[in-house]
Write a structure and sequence with these properties.
This protein is of the alpha+beta class and 87 residues long. 34% of the residues lie in helices and 23% in strands.
Length: 87
């Protein structure tokens, strides 16, 4: 049986399977995107699929530190939309 890769949530700091988390990626040209496939090229940060983890990560600026760039509010709004749509 193949072992699932584990990643750490930027909000709650819990380890979960990669497929259970939402990936935010900074592409080589500096663009920030939400990676639904999990295969986009670039540096990634992961967050649980719940609004509390997202709000905690936004408040502590943990995603910005992980991706080493400033993240616009539009990206956070898109993330909120993705999380609410899945609920």
């Amino acid at each position: 049986m193949k072992k699932m890769p584990q990643r750490t949530c930027m909000g709650c700091n819990g380890k979960k399977d990669k497929k259970d988390l939402i990936r935010i990626v900074k592409s080589p040209n500096g663009e920030i995107n939400i990676d639904k496939s999990g295969k986009m090229l670039g540096r990634g940060a992961y967050i649980c699929d719940n609004i509390q983890c997202l709000e905690k990560a936004v408040k502590t600026k943990r995603i910005e530190r992980a991706l080493e760039t400033k993240i616009e509010n539009t990206i956070y709004e898109k993330l909120r939309g993705v999380i609410i749509d899945k609920s």
